[in-house]
Design brief:
The protein has 4 helices and 24 strands. The chain is mainly β and 352 residues long. The longest helix has 7 residues. The protein is globular and about 70 Å long.
Length: 352
């Protein structure tokens, strides 16, 4: 990936404020927009609360601990990049009993390469209560699609959001594209614990505008299915059974917490179609492949042998080859951006 992939937008400000006890709270993240244009900044709020209504509301109370939290962005190439240094605190720095309420930390990043970006805030804390110490491992996910045309119409085919990113703890993995969800759509999400499906586990779905909630239960593959209603922001929350992991003298058990937010968009506006060249533009890590090395045959996009070997190290085939097949053989990821208006379709390949 280019060295300019991530621009550090802010520096870390540590607050001396007294935080409310957090053992009873849940943490989640929210991005300022589900889709942004190439080169624009995305902002990620770290929120703590969900304390009322049996932990099924959007009430904010308290804040994340910057000392025990890391924030990462997983790029379309599958690279997990630490952006914790961009965190800044939005509240007062003077200590008080209420300084953490309705305030919190914000992280940021930007990218010059279109694709699916997964933001994960990971907490690792030890809480003591009644002479018992429990380690809590937290994973809070949100998502951003970066696009040359920042519309759901252009990002509708992205698949990279389904990569697991926090395999040492519990995490919620969307099996749909969270940047292009529209009302009445069926959404599927999988709950994993250390990379393995977690069956028969409750997951709470909470709607932001009125905090109405619904309790779902994962099937034998750790998957929940539900139908979203009107455009809004939604929060998923799960606390799988505590693990038996313990360290003598430090903590006697480990608990997991996983959250995920996504936005449902109206998705009604479509840019009118225009007559365009049917051959897609092809990019590898954001760099365009010469069009003479791209061949369209029987509806399939191919690369010449020389281009495949030049751009996809590890490919050792001969003759023209399907871009998807060459990318898979080289261990790379591929995303497709459909035609929008007069803009041609595009294939983006991301090498690790």
């Amino acid at each position: 990936m280019s060295k300019k992939l991530f621009a550090i937008c802010s520096t870390l400000l540590l607050s001396a404020a007294i935080a409310l006890p957090v053992y009873a709270h849940d943490g989640w993240t929210e991005t300022n927009a589900p889709i942004v244009a190439v080169g624009e900044s995305s902002y990620v709020d770290l929120l703590l609360g969900n304390h009322s209504n049996n932990h099924a509301s959007y009430r904010i109370e308290g804040r994340w601990s910057a000392d025990t939290t890391k924030v990462y962005v997983t790029t379309p190439a599958g690279k997990k990049v630490d952006i914790s240094s961009t965190l800044y605190y939005t509240g007062e720095t003077a200590a008080s009993e209420t300084s953490g309420i309705n305030n919190g930390y914000i992280a940021s990043f930007n990218s010059s390469t279109p694709g699916a970006y997964i933001i994960t805030a990971e907490g690792d804390s030890i809480f003591k209560h009644d002479n018992q110490a429990t380690r809590t491992l937290r994973s809070a996910k949100s998502f951003v699609a970066v696009s040359d045309i920042p519309t759901a119409q252009r990002t509708a085919k992205l698949e990279g959001f389904s990569k697991p990113t926090s395999t040492d703890r519990a995490e919620l993995v969307p099996l749909v594209n969270p940047s292009a969800i529209t009302p009445k759509q069926t959404v599927s999400v999988q709950l994993l614990v250390k990379g393995k499906p977690q069956p028969d586990t409750e997951v709470t779905l909470i709607k932001r505008n009125n905090s109405t909630s619904e309790i779902l239960k994962t099937n034998e593959k750790g998957i929940i299915h539900f139908v979203v209603q009107e455009a809004d922001q939604y929060l998923l929350r799960a606390k799988p059974s505590s693990a038996t992991d313990k360290v003598e003298g430090q903590y006697t058990s480990t608990s997991y917490e996983a959250t995920m937010t996504f936005t449902v968009q109206n998705g009604k506006y479509k840019i009118p179609a225009a007559q365009v060249n049917p051959k897609p533009l092809v990019y590898v890590n954001g760099k365009q492949v010469d069009e003479k090395d791209v061949v369209l045959k029987n509806g399939s996009t191919l690369l010449t042998e020389s281009a495949a070997k030049t751009y996809l190290q590890g490919y050792d085939g001969k003759d023209e080859v399907s871009i998807r097949k060459a990318a898979e053989k080289a261990g790379a990821y591929l995303e497709f951006f459909p035609v929008v208006g007069g803009l041609r379709s595009a294939v983006h390949v991301y090498t690790k």
